Amino acid sequence: MAETKKIYFEVDCKTIKGVKIGTPQPTYVLIKDSDDNEITLTSSNFTYTSSGSFIDFEYTHTQAFNGVVQVLGLDAQEEIISATYSVAKCKTTCCIGQLLYAAMECTCKCDKCKEDLIRAEKVYLFLEAALFEAEHNSNLTQAENNFNKAEELCVEVCACGC
After folding, report:
1. What is the CATH number of domain 3-88?
2. Which of 10, 82, 83, 92 gives a 20 to 30 Å CA spacing to 156?
3. In whole angstroms, what is the distance from residue 126 CA to residue 147 CA?
4. CB neighbours (10 Å) of residue 113?
5. Contacts of residue 157, Cβ cutoff 8 Å, sequence gap at least 6
6. Are 62 and 14 a contacting pair, CB within 8 Å?
7. Parallel, antiparallel, or unpaired: how do β-strands 67-74 and 54-60 relate?
8. DSSP letter at 26?
9. Cβ(121)–Cβ(150) under 8 Å?
10. Is the pTM here over 0.85, yes or no?
11. Where exactly are the structural domains of the chain?
12. Angle, CA of 20, 25 and 27, to the nearest 5°
């Protein structure tokens, strides 16, 4: 099985890019995320270029990817020939920004300002844990658990609406 090494998301999380080492070229690319978006691409739907042993692909979706994302390269028989996992964290990163902004703008003399900062830190740490579990351990269950906890911490306080 050839391995996909890394996937990247553009700032808006709508464009996903992947770098794969080795061959063969997949016939299909299946992309799934935590919001139950599932996209099957054929070579006519994604850009696929090869230079040496590195193969790049790029795809732009109509809506943002969110949460734990699986990118599976499939051959003509729909067998997995490459797999990688990552986290699309645009919405949750926005929440961290909102919490940090609230902490910086806070003028009260109580612990409220500190609470926003601590919550932002927790959200960030859960996101990083989700990313680590997805990219380094390929542990989708733990990645989902960590991502869901990060989102839960955001929704509890601000429901950021990003």
Report:
1. 2.60.40.1930
2. 10
3. 6
4. 16
5. 99, 116, 119
6. yes
7. unpaired
8. P
9. no
10. no
11. 3-88, 90-157
12. 120
Q: Which residue has the tokens 């193969």?
A: 55
Rounded distance, CA 151 to CA 127, Å? 9
Rounded Cα distance, 41 and 152, in Å: 31
96's tokens: 């961290």
Give the chain's length: 162
Buried b (16+ CB within 10 A) or exposed e, 97-106: ebbbebbeee
CA-to-CA separations, 6 to 61, 84, 101, 142, 152, in angstroms, rounded: 18, 7, 31, 19, 27
> Tell me: the pLDDT tens digits for 98-148?
888 888 888 877 777 788 889 999 999 999 999 999 999 989 999 999 999
**SS3 (DSSP) at 154:** helix
CA dihedral for 19, 23, 28, 32, sign (positive or negative): negative
